[in-house]
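Sharing a chain and its predicted structure for anyone who wants a worked example. Both blocks are below, sequence first, tokens second.
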Amino acid sequence: MSILIKNATLIYPGEKDHNKSRDILISNGKIEKIGPKIDALNAKIISGKKLCVSPGWLDVGTQGGEPGFEYRENFKSLSIAAAAGGFTGLA
């Protein structure tokens, strides 16, 4: 399955496309192409206002329940929730 993200701002300091609006084609879970205008037949299109894409996002406001409050949240459930939300790191 292919996914085409339209008009997303790339947040990737040090790269040539940093802070530029680009289309991103993803096939089989891998980025195939990044460019100003990409057309892809049969691709699922994701578009919207103010989309941003970066290599990862860090959530610095997490509150785990360990130690002592595991009934509320544990590190495993916290990391699963973070990954589902697109975060690559927790603090």
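Comments welcome. Residues 42 and 70 are 45 Å apart (CA to CA).
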